[in-house]
Structures are given as structure tokens and as C-alpha cells.
Amino acid sequence: MLKIAICEDESNQRQGIVNIIEKYLSLAKKQHEIVQFVNGEQLMSSILDFDIYFLDILMNKITGIDAAKKIRSINEKAIIVFISGIKDYVFEAFDVRAFNYILKPVNEEKLRKVLYSALEEIDKKDKFIIAKTISQKTKIFLKDIMYIESEKRKLKIHTTYDVIEYYYKLYDMEQELCKDNFFRCHKSYIVNLMYVYSYDNTFITLKNLDKIYVSKYKLNDFSKAFMYYLKNEGQ
């Protein structure tokens, strides 16, 4: 079940947000639970295990930014959306990896788009592939894959926790992942854009400091794909 927290100290604003979210989750036929909080203190005293947080920024004592920092310290995967009447805190929102920033008065269409984008992001986190060997099948979530390497007839799936090897074609894997945040950057590599730290004309450096080759023929397309990812997904 989808769990959503809404923290807003103005009751009319809070109820309006709840009504819009209820409307579109019902249309999407998503089972859900919405919990309302009237201030940051109340939110901080709760169990912080929600999938999506909608946070007002300007609240007494504990601000939305302060609450987001606390959430991030114990919940890396949560989606945080700020709602504010001013733009002044946009850069601070980036510091806590906010998913989006909605200005008041809340526009229903804007909130709908942000909500549905958040649902898509959550669905992506649940996607997986199956690595099949003679002796076993291994379930690998896409969010855990940093890059995929082809060596002879084998694939090496480099995850955040292990390297998993099995016989499979890199081309076939590319087709499976083409709609997700993966890019075929070289004849021997597919990279998860989520883990890219930097790149130059020869190498892509990942967040764990591993380096993989980027083909000169793929460099321009990779650059465009990565910029698009940062703009639309990697906030």
C-alpha cells in the first residue's frame, strides 16, 4: 500500500492538497493511506516510513527543510515534494534531493503531474531482472545495478552489493532496459545513469569511483541522455 504524508500548518491548504491527491489516486486505482500532520514537530514524532512526503516549508519551529533533512538521514528512498509560497528555498531543496517544488497557490494540474511522476518513480524502484544460471535464478532490482559488462559470452552485473555473472547477450539486455535509466555507452558496457558521477571523452566515473569506457561514437548521445536524466529524474 502506498503511504503518503502531508505536512502543512494551514488547514485549508492541507485539506485542498489531500482532496486533489485522493482524487487522482482513486482514478489510478492505487491503494493508499494518507496521514496529515499540522506541523514539523508532529511529523518528526511519527514513524518516518512513508513513500511520499508533501512538505510545507515555512512552518514554526521545525521547517519543511529541517524535516526533510531528518527524513533523509533515515530514509534515503523516500520521495520529498516541497510546497511553498516563495521560491527562495529551491537550492536548499536540492540539498535534500527533493523530487519537486510546487508553488502556492497549488495548481491542481501541477500537483497531478508531480503525483503521477512520483508514482512512476516508485514503480521503477520495484523493477527487476532475473539472472539465470544452471543452478539458480537470481532476482536483481534495477535500482541496485550500477553497470553491466559484457565479457565473451557472459554478462557481469555490477550491483551495489555484488557482481553476478551469467550467460546472456548484451544486446538483449539493452532491449530490456531501453525504457529505464540505462544507456549503452560502449560495445561492452551498459551504465545506469543514476550512478554516474562524471565523465570525459574516454571514461564514465561512477559514484563508487569505478570507471567504464564510453565510446567516442556514443559520447554525444550519452551526454544528451545524462543531461535529460538529471533534468527529469535525478533531482
Strand order of the largest sheet: 2-1-3-4-5
Strand content: 25-35%
What is the CATH class of the largest domain? Alpha Beta
Q: What are the secondary-structure elements, in order, as H or E?
A: EHEHEHEHEHEEEEEHEEEEEH
C-alpha end-to-end distance: 25 Å
Shape: elongated
What kind of sheet is the major sheet? 5 strands, parallel
Arithmetic mean of pLDDT:
92
Low-pLDDT segments? none
What is the number of helical segments per DSSP (H or I, 4+ residues)? 7
Indicate the CATH topology of the largest domain. Answer: Rossmann fold
Radius of gyration: 20 Å
In total, the number of domains comes to 2
**CATH homologous superfamily grouping of the largest domain:** Response regulator
Total beta strands: 15
Overview of this protein structure:
Keywords: Phosphoprotein. This is Stage 0 sporulation protein A homolog. InterPro entries: CheY-like_superfamily, LytR-like, LytTR_DNA-bd_dom, Sig_transdc_resp-reg_receiver. With 235 residues, the protein is an alpha/beta fold. It has two domains: 124 residues, Rossmann fold; 105 residues, LytTr DNA-binding domain (OB fold (Dihydrolipoamide Acetyltransferase, E2P), Beta Barrel), CATH 2.40.50.1020. Helix content is 34%, strand content 32%. A five-stranded parallel beta sheet has the order 2-1-3-4-5, with helices on both faces. It has a five-stranded antiparallel beta sheet with strand order 10-9-8-12-11. The chain has a three-stranded antiparallel beta sheet with strand order 13-14-15, with no helix packed on it. Strand 4, helix 4 and strand 5 form a beta-alpha-beta unit. It is elongated, with a radius of gyration of 20 Å. 26% of the residues are buried.
